[in-house]
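G., before I forget:
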Amino acid sequence: MTRSPRRAVRRLGLAGVAAFVAAAAGLVFAGSPAGAVASPSYVRLAHLSPDTPKVDVYMTSYTRPDWKFLLKGVGYGAVSPYQRVQPDRYAVSMRPAGAPASSPPVLSTNLDAAAGKAYTVAGVGPYAALGLTVLDDDLTLPASGKSRTRVINGSARAKTVSVTAQDGPTVTDGVAFGKSTSYSEVQAGKWTLQVASTSQPDMETTAAVDLSAGDVYSLVVLDAGDGGLTLATHPDAVSAAVTPSGSIETGGGGTAGPHLPLWLPVGVGAVGIALLATAFARSRRSPGLHAA
Amino acid sequence: MSESSSPGARDERRATGPATDGDAGIHAGAGVAPCADATQRADRSDDPIAAGRPVTGGKTAAIVDVGRGRGRWQRDRGAGLLAGAGVVLVLAASLVGVRAAAGTGDDGEPPIAGAASSAPSDPAERPSAGPTAVAGVATGPPGASWGPVSNQSPVAAPTTRAAAGTRPLGVRVPAIGVDATSLVPLAILPATGELAAPADFDQTGWYAAGPVPGEPGPAVIAAHVDSKAGPAVFFRLKELKPGDKVYVPRSDRVTVTFTVTGVERYPKNAFPTQKVHGPTPDRALRLITCGGSFDYAKRSYRDNIVVYAVRTG
């Protein structure tokens, strides 16, 4: 009988192909990049208009009608915790505190929240010219030993302010009411900051701040209730003072399996294909054998 | 807190596609982060391919078997088709697995702890219409009590951080059977700047100079995937899925709850330091171990597995 050896060859070929496909599948699995975790967006809301009463702040999505985020009774000087949201296009609206959700908003603006980015949506300016502004917050690592700061001026009284560290750097030599400086890096540590109006010589205050290395801060200048100025320090983002650089060695290899050379599965697969091709060619060369 | 990010919403999302999630889950496990070769092979033994079933098309078998009658031919063709379909399924599932992994951090963002108190959610006040934004322009008439006020005292910045000296006492991850009742402090290796692993294979460590778990910033807890003899504390870390819980009891008698948002595998020579250790606005946790293939020459795994989680309670 010619069938038995032929069947044996065929089986060998099939086994080879199976081994090859398994090896290929293994390569596909092993080689597939780890799924990239889509980063969220972060949004917080701030009320920086000294003569505007409390507001309710609504955040709604353009793509998900059921989604909303509501902050009630946000008063002057408030900077909310960050809300972790999926990247999307949002509308942020302000209504007088307690006003029905169906009432028209006093103000609204759009926010295109990108993955891995953080934003502060702030009500700024005087009541009579209230506006909503979207600030980009910085989540990148400061240089080693540094903090990153910016100054947001929510003081109508001072108009334009300067912020200078005693025996240290000038953080800003002038930022107007309702505006923010860009970020700058300063040496981490305890500083006494002098906050002064650039237009009214007697209007100033000092504030003690403790800036941690690796952290990002917003320094918010506000009208104090007693008539002066005050400075509020809000961390935007926090990281370790000394950031580990890269990887960690956490394995002994005890479950890594026997140490097989890489060519083994590939070689087995190649032999299998060769056998299969041989079997295929032979069966085609003598088609009458089985048809008879 | 927002409706869409409530736990209920996440459950609903999962419940809508159990078949797809199940398939993707199996193959995402094999595709995302095989920690050791042995596990990888074990995972694949369920696949028709690895089980050694025929995977050729029906044609070759048909030519060889043509003398055996129609029934066998059809059986063989059927088996071939089945096997072929199996290959397609496996490949498709692996793609789905990659896609599923890619989307893990995207949907159902867990609510941030601490934001809840200042973010009451009242369904009755949900806006009935979609967003109608007019950038920077006042669009509505002021309410009756709506008008300028003078000399408001600014709201004080909330101070919700734990007392200095608070430290984590352990880590519990029920989904993968981890219950470490002590954490050793990990330091940075001066020579390389890398984080030192726990000295013993059965220890779990935390980066003590970094954020405290539950406080703002990315806290780090690390453990070995295996010893030289067998599995170690974080052997099953790669199995975690978004939504799984991680509990960290602390010295201030608070047990912090984290929710997993994603699992990633990185080559050690391309470790994304900014993404893993960079500043975060929220109270984040990173669980780290080794993965990928083992470099026998260096006695070291080639990859790191990183689990991303955020505080939710």
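The first helix of chain A runs from residue 3 to 31. The first strand of chain A starts at residue 41 and ends at 48.

More on Monday.
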